[in-house]
From TrEMBL:
Residues 517-560 form the Cationic amino acid transporter C-terminal domain. The keyword Transport applies. Keywords: Membrane, Transmembrane, Transmembrane helix, Transport. The keyword NAD does not apply. Gene3D superfamilies: Amino acid/polyamine transporter I (1.20.1740.10). The lineage of its organism: Bacteria, Pseudomonadati, Bacteroidota, Sphingobacteriia, Sphingobacteriales. Its main location: membrane. One of its GO terms (cellular component) is membrane. It is a multi-pass membrane protein. The chain crosses the membrane at residues 39-61, 67-86, 198-218, 230-248, 260-278, 299-323, 343-363, 396-414, 420-439, 460-477, 497-524, 536-555. This is Amino acid transporter. One of its GO terms (molecular function) is amino acid transmembrane transporter activity. It is found in: Membrane.
Length: 568
């Protein structure tokens, strides 16, 4: 059975299955309409969104002006992963992203785990984006003097918690924050059936339904909408940077790292959350005209453009106001209000609505294609692989994705969603980087016609970097092995202990096997960022993976196409 759990699909079989599907009426080819410009725009659409309009504020509050360094660190980390994704995408130009790549390199069980992980990442990320979009949209309506009832603009739990806080304050609403005041108002004014208050985030539901319809009716329509939204929001971001530099006070950049390196790293989940979208490009492989050439270019181009924009925006934000003032939900609009440019603040609010909608669009497009790939392999029911005969999109999977995001977005409170989404994405990146190291060598005429990740021998470099890291940070590492603070503190350090052991093993393997440097650096850097996300997020993540394993052994293992082929 152990051998069966790690059975691999050859690259040739993956390509064959993507062309044949199930061999019945449920399968139709996807439309090949995407070029390198479209893929680059999709990457920008996915990356320039909630990060640049919201989470960058909290990251700047923790890291000060030095958060721009964190964007560079994260971009380099993502760059290593992007090159690994590009290598896979050029060799396996099939929908499914990291799931498909893991099937070819690690085997079926790991492929299922990463597929299940990606479903969590996309679904929870989309719920968060939908809720964020709702907040921007409601604020935008207020600019037109349109006031939605509070009980139709947020979730039930937030309203209930604000109500309890108000009661604890003796009914003094002045002691509540503006957000809590709105939530308390929602509870007080909501219609009720018995003791049940009818409170739900209606705008979040509507945007998910609208985006789902757009994704359902075709990739061409999705492409056109994406391109238009990207042009608008990039124009606004460039205008913000250009205008904002005139209001920068250089004194605000001193000290550059007010809370040290550790304070800067507190913003890692918020910063990394900004970058998680670029891997969604790889799910469109079967809809590219020339995936082996265009997919790698689209990933790298979008990553470079977005990194430059993020660094410039971070410098403008922290230069216009003191970093201590940036712990707000809408930092871009806030800083322009702070310097008296209220009209620009209003334009930013419009752009935020467009930007978050484009992120939602790309993620809603990516998730059904992962469902489809898993279904083709028999790990999910056949219905998920159904492609609409007219629209050429994974129809059933798109509908299920819409429901899975729209319904929770009505009621959920996701204050810590960025951490959970980030840990899932980093896990995918780790497996993709590790998977490249396991790919068989190519000996075909196609080798020189596609992207090839440059090989740099890591035999001496990786062990040397490990020794340098241990030497430079040995004092900090020794503090991590101080167990006198009790279990509650030690458990937060558990991910780091595991990481140090794995880093040592990888360093030894790099020396003995002459491993390629780029995927090894991607694996190590993503693995380290995972250690920064805390015990609670790891626990939630492992619970989610546990649920996935129950489904795998209850259904997917028996129905796997590889299993049925072996039986025959």
């Amino acid at each position: 059975m152990q051998k069966d759990l790690f059975r691999k699909k050859s690259i040739q079989k993956i390509l064959k299955d993507s062309n044949e599907g199930f061999g019945d009426a449920t399968h139709h080819s996807l439309s090949k309409v995407l070029g390198v410009r479209d893929l680059t725009f999709m990457g920008i659409a996915a990356v320039v969104g909630a990060g640049i309009f919201s989470t960058i504020g909290e990251a700047a509050f923790n890291g000060g002006p030095g958060v721009s360094i964190l964007f560079i660190i994260t971009a380099i980390t993502c760059g290593f992963s992007a090159l690994c994704y590009a290598e896979f995408a050029s060799r396996i130009p099939v929908s499914g992203s990291a799931y498909t790549y893991a099937y070819a390199s690690f085997g079926e069980l790991i492929a299922w785990i990463i597929g299940w992980d990606l479903l969590m990442e996309y679904a929870i990320g989309n719920i968060a984006v939908a809720i964020s979009w709702s907040g921007y949209f409601v604020n935008l309506l207020k600019g037109f003097n349109i006031q939605m009832p509070a009980y139709l603009t947020l979730d039930y739990l937030s309203a209930y918690q604000a109500h309890k806080t108000l009661l604890g304050n003796g009914g003094d609403i002045a002691k509540l924050s503006e957000t809590a005041k709105t939530a308390a108002e929602a509870w007080a004014t909501a219609p009720a059936i018995g003791n049940l208050r009818l409170i739900a985030d209606l705008p979040a539901l509507l945007i998910v339904l609208l985006i789902t319809v757009l994704v359902y009716v075709g990739i061409r329509e999705t492409k056109r909408a994406t391109n238009v939204m990207v042009v608008i929001k990039i124009g606004v971001v460039l205008a913000v940077i250009a205008i904002g530099f005139f209001y920068v006070t250089p004194e605000n950049w001193h000290p550059f790292l007010p809370n040290g390196f550790g304070g800067m790293m507190k913003g890692v989940s918020g910063v990394f959350f900004a970058y998680i979208g670029f891997d969604a490009i790889s799910t469109t492989a079967e809809e590219c005209r020339n995936p082996q050439r265009d997919l790698p270019r689209g990933m790298v181009y979008s990553l470079i453009i977005c990194t430059v924009l993020y660094i410039l925006v971070a410098l403008v934000l922290t230069g216009m106001v003191n970093y201590r003032e940036l712990a707000v939900a809408d930092p871009l609009a806030f800083v322009f209000e702070r310097v008296g440019l209220n009209k620009i603040s209003y334009v930013i609010s419009i752009s935020a609505v467009i930007a978050t909608a484009s992120v939602l669009l790309i993620f809603q497009m990516g998730q059904p294609r992962i469902w489809m790939s898993m279904s083709r392999d028999g790990l999910l029911p056949k219905a998920f692989a159904r492609v609409h005969p007219k629209y050429k999109t994974p129809s059933f999977a798109t509908i299920v994705t819409g429901i899975a995001v729209a319904v929770p977005a009505l009621f959920m409170n996701l204050t810590e969603v960025t951490d959970l989404t980030s840990i899932g994405t980093l896990f995918a990146f780790v497996l993709v980087c590790g998977g490249v190291l396991l790919l068989p060598k190519e000996e075909t005429a196609q080798t020189n016609k596609r992207f090839r990740m440059p090989y740099i021998n890591g035999k001496w470099i990786v062990p040397l970097l490990f020794l340098i890291g241990v030497t430079v940070f040995h004092d900090n590492l020794l503090n991590h092995f101080d167990f006198s603070d009790g279990w509650l503190v030690v458990r937060e350090k558990l991910p780091l202990y595991v990481y140090l052991i794995l880093a040592l093993i990888i360093s030894i393997l790099s020396f003995t096997k002459s491993l390629s440097l780029i995927p090894v650096l991607g694996l190590l850097s993503c693995g380290y960022l995972m250690t920064e996300l805390g015990y609670v997020n790891w626990l939630r993540f492992l619970i989610w993976l546990g649920i996935g394993l129950v489904i795998y052994f209850g259904y997917s293992y028996k129905n796997s196409k590889l299993n049925k082929t072996a039986d025959e």
